[in-house]
Design brief:
The chain has 119 residues and is an alpha+beta fold. It is built from five helices and five strands; from the N terminus they run ααββββααβα.
Length: 119
């Protein structure tokens, strides 16, 4: 575990690190990808870049509003409150329907699933 991260970034780091250590990161993510995760009630947002069996997490301290996600270069993003995230698939589906989840590219949900499966 990396002491530089706490909260949701630390959870994602832990999942990615596990996949990397067991050499499953490149198999799980064969193409380079950059996604942004933003828990609206527990900022900051952060980006995850995965490429060639390695990953990098960048904390986005300047991102304060989910509407600002549209201007960022990435393959996908998800912005949602913690309560909806903890509601799992059903909570996220409901949040998308109620527009409390902001999502670019449904593949972001698959990435989230892979990360939580490895933690």
């Amino acid at each position: 575990m990396c002491p530089l991260y706490e909260g949701f970034p630390a959870i994602v780091y832990s999942g990615l690190w596990t996949l990397k250590v067991y050499r499953k990161l490149e198999k799980s993510f064969p193409k380079p990808i950059k996604v942004i995760f933003f828990l609206t009630d527990a900022p900051p947002a952060f980006s995850v870049k995965i490429e060639n069996g390695d990953f990098e997490i960048e904390i986005l301290n300047d991102l304060n509003d989910p509407q600002d996600l549209d201007g960022l270069e990435c393959d996908g993003y998800i912005a949602l409150p913690t309560e909806i995230l903890y509601g799992g698939v059903e909570g996220i589906k409901k949040g998308i329907g109620e527009e409390t989840v902001k999502l670019k590219n449904f593949e972001t949900l698959a990435i989230l699933g892979k990360l939580f499966a490895s933690v």
